[in-house]
Amino acid sequence: MAAEATGTGRRPAYARICDAVRTGIERGTLPAGAVLLEGPLAELFNSSRSPVKQALAQLESEGLLSRFQGRGLMVSGADRPLRLELTQEHLAIGEEALADERTNTADLYYYEVEREILKRSLFGRFRVNELALARHYGVGRTVAREILLKAQLAGIVTKGEKAHWWIVPLNEERLRNLYQLRELLEPVALQAAAAHLPADVLDDIRKRLDRAMQRFPDLGIAELDQLEKDLHTDCLAFCPNREILEALGRSRASIISGKHMQSILMRTPRTDAFLDEHSAVVTWLAKGRPAEAADALLNHLVISREKGVERLAEFHRRFSATAVDYIVD
After folding, report:
1. In terms of Cα–Cα distance, which of 102, 95, 99, 97 is closest to 16?
2. Is the pLDDT of residue 8 over 80?
3. DSSP characters for 71-127?
4. Whether the bond into 217 is cis, omega within 30 of 0
5. Residue partners of 203: CB distance under 8 A and separation at least 6
6. Where is the HTH gntR-type domain (predicted)?
7. Which of 39, 145, 241, 256 is deepest in the core (most CB within 10 A)?
8. Percent of the chain at pLDDT above 70?
9. CB neighbour list of residue 42: distance below 8 Å, 6 or more residues apart
10. Given CA atoms 140, 114, 112, 229 in this order, what sign does their dihedral have?
């Protein structure tokens, strides 16, 4: 089973679950006799069952929970079990805490899922089974759904008939179409954004880019993703024309494919000049020359398109579809 996300400097998941249940009992929002089951609690906390099981064992050792003739544990102090549908109000835990747990857990597994979906998209249209995805990582359905919603925003899955999740196929024609969309709109969006781009935001982007160029090729997927986000998302976000930005949201799959294809094909960034191309765009922006920055961005996109097509062909020559238990025909 996958390790539970705890986050840097955060208390273990089981301890946070313990605190929430204990607080509910102490405040009386979780009544005596209430039955606690691992599955519903894991779903509520967007967690795997392992920390829930550990939390229940801890609370039982404290005498706050007790066993009875049936499944689960019940809150001590009652003669008979009380079966109710648990909510966050019973546990006296706020929506913010639940959302934080969900986001951290979903983010922990997202890159791996994104990579598998992207790899399979190169071979056609397949279904992603949400329940199987949750079981694969030992998490609740809510976490699996958060992962797939994030993938949907990236344009690599879509919700189809009977509420099933489907992988959006990525072939050469679609890749070229996505780049054409970007080539038409990104330079326009960048020129419009330039006048509204705060100097401190641009400075942070410049610093991250400089650090990355100094550390080539020792860059992880998350760092490469941030560098792409800096130029192709964060800079463009200051474009006042929201219609352009919404249209560009459809092209995210081309960025994702480039990131993972480079890693899968084991090409080091030393063979890829994209950071130099990013640097040219950022340099023109810093000089207050948005037209030149837009030209540099267009040049970068044209080069990236042809590299993407080349990598797609190489992938098909070298690899075939591999089985993943949550992706089905």
Report:
1. 97
2. no
3. SSEEESS-SS-B-----TTTTT--HHHHHHHHHHHHHHHHHHHHHHHHHHHTT---E
4. yes
5. none
6. 11-78
7. 256
8. 89
9. 48, 49, 52, 139, 140
10. negative
pLDDT of residue 173: 95
Q: Where are the alpha helices (DSSP H) in 250-289?
A: 252-264, 274-286
What's the token pair of residue 55?
Answer: 């939390």
Structure token digits, residue 64 = 């706050």
Q: CB within 8 A of 297, min separation 6: which ones?
A: 186, 187, 190, 231, 281
pTM of the predicted structure, to 2 decimals: 0.64
Rounded Cα gap, residues 312 and 235, in angstroms? 28
Cβ proximity of 293 and 281 under 8 Å = yes
The Cα 131–Cα 22 span in angstroms is 30
Q: How many other C-beta atoms lie within 10 A of the C-beta of residue 315?
A: 17
pLDDT for 18 beyond 80: yes
Alpha carbon of residue 267 to chain centroid: 24
User: Residue 223 contacts by C-beta under 8 Å, 6 or more apart in sequence?
Assistant: 212
Could you give the 3-state DSSP secondary structure of residue 2?
A: coil
Phi, psi at 7, each rounded to 5°: 75, 150
